[in-house]
Each structure stands twice: as structure tokens, then as C-alpha cells.
Predict the structure.
Amino acid sequence: MKLAIGCDHGGFDLKEEVMEFLRQSGHEVLDLGCKSHEAVDYPRFAEAVCEAVLADKTEAGILICGTGIGMSMAANRHQGIRAALCHETFTARKSREHNNANVLCLGARVLGGGVVMEIVKAWVETEFAGGRHLRRIEMF
Ligand code: RB5
């Protein structure tokens, strides 16, 4: 899968780890920043990743900030983006299977690295189930 990834300063370290994990797992990753610990505004990076997904430059996106909350709020303002904030693997899987989430949001200050990689793995490996779930996501 080709994914765009973005973060703010609170998510920078975890973004580097997630990128490494994804690349080692055979995925292609487009890094849209930020590129350091310097304080930045997370909506700008949410916008960059959402634009990449909506323009079909990538199939999906991952956004990381301190809590994941700001990124998920900002991403879901973009029509066509279905961003899911996940803290464990059950919702990560269901966000793909039932909601066809095209952006995964993570909270770097909430999660440990080991849990994050399990969430990311579950999310990228789960497919949309379609059927009644398609009808529902077409309603918003
Ligand atoms: C930055 O300090 C922090 O507010 C941000 O990373 C995020 O948690 C916002 O939702």
C-alpha cells in the first residue's frame, strides 16, 4: 500500500518509527512532515495528508499528534476523508472493515511503540467489507 504520513512536533518521533515499520513491511510511504521537534500547527499537516489521499497520490494516510484528537478533528473536516482515531487493534480493524477509514490517527503521547505497530499493522491489513457498510458511509 502507498501511504502519506504527517505529524506535528508531538508526533515526530513516533512518525519516524511508523515510517520505518511500514517500509520494512513492504509499504511505500510519502513523508509530508513535520521533519523535526520544532513546534508546528497540526492542521497544516492534516491538510497535506488529506490532499494527498483525496488526489489519489496515496491510497491512505496516517496522522500523528500528541493525542491524535486534533489531527482527527482537522482531517474529518475534509469532504471524502474518513479519519479514525484508534488506540487499540479492535477499532483499527473495524474502522477499515465497517467505515472504510482512509486516514488513521494516532496519539503519540497516549500509546507505546509496540502497541502502535500492532494498530498500524491491523489497519493496513484490513479491507473494507462493503455491503451495508457502503450504504452507511455514503450517507455522510
Ligand atoms: C501539541 O502540543 C498538541 O496539542 C498536539 O500534538 C495534539 O495533541 C493536538 O490535538
